[in-house]
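assembly run, all chains below
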Amino acid sequence: MNSNQFQGTLADHAFLAGLAESDIKILTALSFEVRFQEEQIIFREGDPSSFFYLILSGRIALEVLAPGHVLRIQTVGEGEELGWSSLLASVNKQFQARCLEPVTAFAFDGAQIVARCEDDPAFGFRLLRRVLATVADRLRATRLQLLDVYAKRGGGGQ
Amino acid sequence: MTTFQTTPATSPSEPPGANPMTPLPARLIGVEKETHDTYTLTLEPAAVEGSTIASRFRPGQFSMLYDFGVGELPISISGDPERPEQLVYTIRSVGPVTTSLVTRSPGDSIGVRGPFGTPWPMTEARGKSVLIVAGGIGLAPLRPAIYHILRHRGDYNRLVILYGARSPRDILFKKELSAWGLLPDTQSLVTVDYGGVSWRGHVGVVTTLFKSIRAQPSETYALLCGPEVMMRFALRELQIRGLPKNQIFLSMERNMKCAAGFCGHCQLGPFFVCKDGPVFSSAAIEPWMDLYEA
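ok done. output:
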């Protein structure tokens, strides 16, 4: 993929939709393409949060290791992001990320992104608003998941 | 003393003279286990004046099933509306009546009243894409709508089926969901709230599938059925994505007893769910969905 194709693909990513070309150029300069194999662990719970990913293809499961078993709590895929905690200082990974399929993604060094946001607060605001929207979406989905709406609730003599 | 003589209301889908309060016996011809707690019952309905409940029902309607000596319950019809020789119900065993119904044997007799209620807007949705959003047992009342679309495929644009279940072992109609996804112009996506390592599919609530929909919102009719909390969240997401309120339909569940609008047990705001529903447009029902009911 040449740099123009790279920038075009990045601009087409759902997470960045509508962002100005100048912002896309900044992000293009900070990103590189990565590929992961099926079943590959991208990061483990407790790892330092280093990279932020925009997923181009494939599906990744977020897992929590419990004694004797693994809980799969969420999957993310094409058009979504992974690893937003890398944009926060001193936060280690809360979950394990395992590829359920071969995955292609754009990777960004979280520390570099944060440094760029600090240098250019307007860019930082625009980017972090998107991150915040993603976090809010995840929080809403997690709350709904916690409600366990499909659990058996017999009533009315059923 | 004044006595009031009531004339039973006859629903539009009943033959003239039929009494909606009188169960008609139907013979159980099959019980199929769908999941660890959910079963599909197939009944052979009795004919009255040349028609049966199965020949009159429209997708989205329900019947009252009477397990003689145990109790009566409203159950949505989950079978093919164009197979008048059989009545199909998918029942989750959650209490004494449902547990008794799903443990009946072929040859047993079950009382059936109906069909009752409003159907899915299959006529209005013609020429549009149809988005089915189902959660848990909520896929059962939507299956007749899916069968209808598949039998009249040329009348509709894209068909998108989004289904959420609690866990992989709770997924209803698993084989059909897979098969529907292979059909042209059809998306069938399944998600579970909690997955083990053997589950290779999507994990997350059903609204997380919305970003994968390939259909034009203004040209789409959405049909929703599932736990009410799930439908509320789905409704908000669909409105954010630009679906007009009058193109979003929900199937509501309340404590239906008479099914003919007499008893008032299923009242929701100005509506009797048994008679004015169970299928409502979101434009009509949304103001009443956020109300707390004691």
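Chain A touches chain B through 32 residues (CB under 8 Å).

Chain A has one domain: 33-152.

not gonna interpret more than that til we talk
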